[in-house]
Amino acid sequence: MRRIDLSSYTVEVAGTNPEGGPRTDNYNVRRSICLVLMSPQQQHGPEDVLDADMLCHKVRETEGETLLLEESEYKRLGSALDKIRGYSINDVEFVKRIRNAGEVPVMVKPEVV
Q1: Cα separation, 59 vs 68, whole angstroms
Q2: Confidence of residue 16 (pLDDT cuts 50, 70, 90)
């Protein structure tokens, strides 16, 4: 399994704030994962779009700030990430969080006899 940090992070955006400094906004990691998975750049067929939608539901419904993905789900997300073009400096942390997602050992429950 892979662990991805879903917490938002701060990015600089165009313009200035009322105090004259750089304007900032929160980068929504959950939303960005779903945008990547469902992007038209993915050129999904019917089966693929349903699989991507199921993964988006998992991302949106995950409680807390940590997403655990099965290896097949992680590969799907990584493949989707590779198809997107036009990332910006604000996306660097997002891409790092996915590319560098830590492995989590899977614990198997003993069978109850």
Answers
A1: 9
A2: confident
Domain assignment of residue 63, given as a range: 2-103
List CB contacts of 85: < 8 A, sequence separation 6 or more: 41
Region at 43 (left for phi over 0; alpha for psi -120 to 50; beta for the rest): left
- Please state, in angstroms and rounded to a whole number, the distance separating the CA atoms of residues 64 and 7: 9
Q: Pairing mode, if any, of strands 9-16 and 2-5? A: unpaired
The answer to whether position 110 is within a domain reads: no
For residue 22, what are its two tokens? 């750089």
pLDDT band at 70 (very low <50, low <70, confident <90, very high): very high
Which SS3 state, helix, strand or coil, does residue 65 take?
coil
**89 lies in some domain:** yes
